[in-house]
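Our platform keeps sequence and structure together, in a single record for each protein. Because each token names a local backbone shape, the row as a whole describes the fold. One such record is reproduced below, unchanged from the form in which we store it:
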Amino acid sequence: MRTFVSAAATVLAVLLAAVAVPAIWLDRSIVQEQGFVELAAPLGRNPEFQQGLAAAAIGTIDTSAVPGFLADLVRPVLENAAASLTGLPGYPAAWEETLRKSHRLSFAGTDANNPEAASASSLTLDVAPLVALGSEEISRATRLPLDPPEQTLINVGQPEHKEWTERLRTFAPAGYLLAGGSAVALLLALVAARRRWTVLVAAGVGALLLAALWTLGAQAGSAAALATDSGNEVANMFRNEFVAAASADFQTWTLAAAITGGVLVLVGIVAGLIPRKRAWVTR
């Protein structure tokens, strides 16, 4: 009976961990605002993406209030602003604020208390901070007042993707509870086992298998995400860069799981050999 309980608890621990680890990663790196910003912040240092995003942001600036005879003066200033935006001292802060506003639009609740999120029907980038930075630079160069909008939205997904973010926001935090259940199940398996080293080996093998499974799942998820087309070049560039960054970040988690699994297998094997060695020595 003890052997059965130990085996069942070990299997349960592995199954719970299989869901818990990806859920915790999603909550910490995607659902939580700070994790999302830290994951996506390096995208702003990609030269090609920088220029595309800057051009898109500057292109949304409303210059209709500029008198017609000044249009020829403003046009080269706009082009220069698009080229130099990423080099301005305020660009890093504007990019971070863009990520924060975009996260709130895509992941915050869509209730009456959150009108900002209700205005987005799909995954959205709000580049208003970059537009404000560009407008300020253009106003400084031309002495013409420009009033940047509070929101400048670029869709980076389809409406159904917005539903996915709402589900993630609801269910991803459950990963912590599942992780706790996995730890309790593993502890139960160790307590009930006649040979505890077998539990360590089994748990280690399970961790190695999960690392392989998560790697395959991440590759499939990345391929599915890259296959979607927003119809916007800048949005597609953001999607490509963000998927690559997320995949690389999750890969560190799968590597940690594989290392942990290998250590558990090694410790279990050593623990299993020690009693045999002692028995052999006493003969």
About this structure: Residues 46-160 form one domain.
